[in-house]
Specification:
By secondary structure, the chain is mostly helical. It contains 10 helices and no strands. The protein is rod-shaped, with a radius of gyration of 59 Å.
């Protein structure tokens, strides 16, 4: 049976044929819906005046047309693919050039990285040297501070330094405070004043703390122990004279002298002097 689709509504009585409603072609849009279901679509064709064989023939024809269109698209894409392959001829050489360029760039990066690492090591070494120099400078300042304080104490106490007397012994002084009192009233006032003695004690303790911060095992600090001993002995001698000369009723002066003894850690020496002072 032939499949008849297109009939003009005006061509009915003139030809003498029947005026039956022949079906129109199935629209392509009906097959393009996302939720297309064949059974549902066929059930919607119940009012279509068409035999099953004609419907099957129409669907077969439609399938052949779509297959032909698909084949044409594939052939067209294949031609484009072949033309693309032709245009890519010589790409191996370009890829090789790019690979060589990348390899050279990688070598340059590695060389720069090596230089950066080397420079980083140099900077770290210089920074460590700077820290060491700064530490040595701080140590030198501390040693100079201790030497300056000891020199001030020696000048104030009129002690001959080790440079001026190579044969000097620990605890030896150049001028006995009692002799100095007889020779000069100014010297007697400077050595016997309790405030001056307390200042000597404070400077001595500051010098001792400075040496401890540096480290008693440092060679320069160990060399200063002789001067420290000489200064301490001189201060103790002056404190003893001041304590002996203080009157019994002057408790304030006696207390200040005893405080100086206590600062030096020589409280037992103060008790010994007090026992000698008793009539």
């Amino acid at each position: 049976m032939s499949n008849r689709f297109f009939f003009d509504d005006d061509n009915d009585t003139d030809s003498g044929e029947d005026n039956l409603p022949y079906p129109k072609p199935l629209p392509r849009e009906a097959f393009l819906t996302p939720d297309f279901d064949p059974a549902t679509y066929l059930s919607s064709l119940r009012n279509r005046h068409q035999t099953l064989e004609d419907l099957r023939t129409e669907l077969r024809t439609r399938s052949q047309d779509i297959s032909k269109e698909l084949l044409d698209l594939v052939n067209e894409d294949y031609q484009d693919f072949l033309s693309l392959g032709s245009s890519l001829r010589g790409g191996d050489e370009k890829v090789e050039e790019v690979s060589l360029g990348l390899l050279g760039f990688k070598r340059e990066i590695q060389a720069l990285k090596s230089k950066v690492d080397e420079r980083n090591k140099e900077v770290e070494h210089l920074v460590s040297q700077k820290k060491e120099i700064r530490r040595q400078m701080q140590l030198g300042r501390a040693l100079l501070g201790v030497d300056y304080r000891l020199g001030e104490l020696e000048r104030s106490l009129m002690i001959m330094s080790s440079e001026a007397s190579q044969n000097g012994k620990a605890g030896e002084v150049d001028h006995d405070p009692s002799e100095s009192d007889e020779e000069s009233d100014d010297s007697q006032e400077a050595c016997s004043t309790t405030s001056r003695l307390n200042r000597h004690v404070r400077n001595y303790l500051l010098a001792r703390r400075g040496m401890e911060r540096i480290g008693t095992d440092h060679p320069s600090v160990a060399q200063q122990e002789t001067r420290m001993t000489r200064i301490k002995n001189t201060i103790l001698l002056d404190l003893g004279n001041a304590l002996k000369q203080s009157s019994t009723g002057n408790d304030d002066q006696t207390t200040r002298v005893l405080a100086a003894y206590r600062g030096l850690g020589e409280s037992q020496e103060a008790l010994k002097v007090l026992r000698e002072r008793r009539p």
